[in-house]
Amino acid sequence: MRIAAEGSWRRPFLATMGLAVLVAAGVGDGGAPFSLTVLVAAGLGFGVLFRLFPRGLDFALGAGIGFATYAALFTVIGRSAFPQASDVAVAVAFLLPVVAFLLAVIRRRDRLRRIVEEGETPDELHLRRIGRVLLLLALVGVASLSLPANRLGPAWQDVAMVGGAAVIGWLTARAVRELVRLLVDMAQLLDALSGRATALVVPIAAYAALFSLITIVFACFYRVAEGLSRHPLFAGPEGPIKLGFRDALHFSIVTISTVGYGDIWPTDDGARLLAAVEVLAGQILLLFGFYEITRNRLSGEEGGEGKDG
Asked: What is the pTM of this model?
């Protein structure tokens, strides 16, 4: 894993906080105070972790992914289990595990710094420990959803929510070593993936270009067929529709990706046949993409073996 150079905090900071802004906007359906809480927690977490472990972009992204996952799960479970909890209780409950984790990191920084700097290959003991921690955290979440806390009054929901967060904070503080090792594992994985990304640029660009070409060509086919027909060839929830190019392009994208939104569908046998041909072309394109990515990977491995030899 690459070590961050002196003063190279900008890229990790921008990546981490950019992700935090997106997550805060996404989970902020409870109002602006919770979004602000998420941003404050992300900034605090980045400041502490990067100050103690300046490991660069990969480690920052690994920590950001973990934080985003926590924010998403907290939002889903918290709002479902404690729908009448106050904004203050929600903010406190969200910050408690984050603060407990960061305080544990600061307290054990010398031992954890060695893990981050040297890295450790995941072993069976580490996997068992992190699995046990994740299981306990999952049980707290399941208990929050299973127990009838949502039937309590707002004040008791505040107490129950903060109490559950305190349990999660205690668990994360106890398992800080394994959680930091998990962040290191994620950073090493991201580092390896970024090293291989160059080999995938060409097949991905070729796939995207062909995907765009097929989508646009078939959209034009649908529009031309619609223009030559005396009656509508497509329908929507409200009945037959006159297909414009924007609708034709949307239908083409939906068809080639086999999403099937159901907002537009062909009612003419010729249009149905044309859509079937596009689906077939999309499947062939998918096979082409898999083949090119696999071929480039095998070529890279053979090249590496040749250099080793």
From this structure: 0.69
